[in-house]
Specification:
This protein is α/β, with parallel strands linked by helices. Helices cover about 50% and strands about 20% of the residues. It has a five-stranded parallel β-sheet with strand order 3-2-1-4-5, with helices on both faces. Helix 4 (about 95-105) packs parallel to helix 6.
Length: about 150
């Protein structure tokens, strides 16, 4: 049984793992004449919790600008790789909720591709794994992209 994935969601955070997931998502989209939705989620609630509410506006503005640039860079990369069916999404809130529920429902996503977490064990314990949450909660198929062997050896 072959899957025909038409609407592929990829989470981006600027990491090598996210870029690798994005490139593989492009390959799947090309094979299926599909579209890639590249999403970056800003968690602006974290600053209020950490006591940075007075700096919140400036921090969020800078992160928003950075996220928009990151999405632009991903779309440029797709064009260089010969594929232009890419839509950028900038979302606010919990990355777990956005990637597992809100965005798949809003865009009728049928495949979510995310890079394997680069977090160490302590960071995973403190923040929880977004990828693990998506696997358990997503309404569609999820593919976790592991680092390629040549990058894993570095």
């Amino acid at each position: 049984m072959t899957q025909n994935y038409q609407r592929i969601l990829v989470g981006t955070d600027g990491s090598e793992q996210a870029m690798e997931a994005f490139k593989k998502a492009l390959a799947v989209a090309k094979r299926n004449n599909g579209k890639v939705y590249v999403a970056h989620v800003l968690d602006n609630q974290a600053y209020n919790i950490m006591g940075y509410s007075s700096l919140n506006e400036n921090i969020v503005e800078q992160q928003t600008a950075d996220a928009k640039q990151l999405i632009t860079d991903y779309r440029k990369q797709a064009k260089e790789l010969g594929y232009e069916e890419v839509e950028g999404i900038l979302a606010y809130g919990s990355a777990k909720e956005a990637m597992a529920h809100k965005l798949p429902e809003k865009y009728a996503i049928d495949l979510i591709m995310v890079g394997q977490s680069g977090l160490n064990a302590v960071e995973r314990f403190m923040t929880g794994s977004v990828a693990s949450y998506i696997i358990k909660e997503a309404p569609c198929d999820v593919l976790i992209v592991h680092p390629s062997k040549e990058k894993a050896g570095n």
